[in-house]
């Protein structure tokens, strides 16, 4: 999942949680390049090929400490050899567009 900072609103990595089909996705690992924070999760088991997954991400931003909840129901289709990465979410606005 990619989360994009906006102005002085910055993703607080310590508050990011994710569920996949209702189960906690832990542990999450993070990387950040410029204003984009990427949260990654490696499933401990194989996910069925072709499965549609409901992904929910919760996090807070700083300095305002506002709550954000992103729901990506059925957005992720598991394909052999690939994962899914929904479009970046820009704080304070709609999802950001991704370059192809």
Identify the notable features of this structure and list them briefly.
single chain; 4-stranded mixed β-sheet; 8 strands; mainly beta; disordered C terminus
Spatial gap, N to C terminus: 16 Å
Structural class, by secondary structure, is mainly beta
**Shape field:** elongated
Q: Indicate the proportion of strand residues.
A: over 45%
Q: Please give the domain count.
A: 1
Strand order of the largest sheet: 4-5-1-8
Rg over alpha carbons: 14 Å
Are there runs of 5+ residues with pLDDT below 50, and where? 74-88, 93-100
Percent helix: under 10%
**Alpha plus pi helix count:** 0
Number of strands: 8
Write a compact overview of the structure shown:
The protein is 0% helix and 52% strand.
């Amino acid at each position: 999942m990619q989360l994009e900072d906006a102005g002085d609103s910055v993703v607080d990595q310590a508050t990011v949680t994710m569920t996949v089909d209702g189960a906690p996705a832990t542990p999450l690992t993070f990387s950040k390049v410029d204003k984009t924070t990427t949260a990654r999760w490696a499933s401990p088991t194989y996910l069925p090929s072709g499965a549609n997954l409901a992904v929910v991400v919760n996090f807070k931003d700083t300095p305002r400490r506002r709550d954000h909840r992103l729901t990506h129901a059925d957005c992720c289709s598991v394909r052999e050899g690939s994962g899914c990465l929904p479009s970046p979410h820009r704080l304070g606005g709609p999802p950001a567009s991704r370059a192809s």
